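Give me structure tokens for this 159-residue protein.
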Amino acid sequence: MSFNAKNEKMNFWEEFTDEHKAGIKRAIEVAEMNTSGEIRVHLENSCKTDLFDRAADIFAKLEMHKTKLRNGILFYVAVNDRKFAIIGDVGINQKVPTGFWDETMEAVLNYFRMNQIPEGLMEGIRMAGEQLKEQFPYEMGDVDELTNEISYGSREDEI
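Here you go.
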């Protein structure tokens, strides 16, 4: 899904602070505290192929399909192209209510349209975490199967 922002001249990378990065990582940690589910965020400049194909490729490269319960969720953003996708693995997709992904996308995009990409991601992560908690509650012995760090694609066209 594409999004247009109020200030088209904003340079995301210049304004993407360590505080934003820590906030996103903390949002993931909080969302995963009460679930066996896994959430990742991937940011890059552009998406040169089909948006959902690219997000699915990143999902696979991050090995998100290898979680025990197939309950990983990827938030993918191509910041310069203003494209955004959420990819859920088969386990979570089978359980979320109809319209959940659309509602989450719209909530995130509302922030993106105001050039608040980190805040939008944090809200989407919170919403995803609530569904993961409901559908895949934490059980004794659950381990964090994937890193909570943000992954990054190429920023070469920014240089």
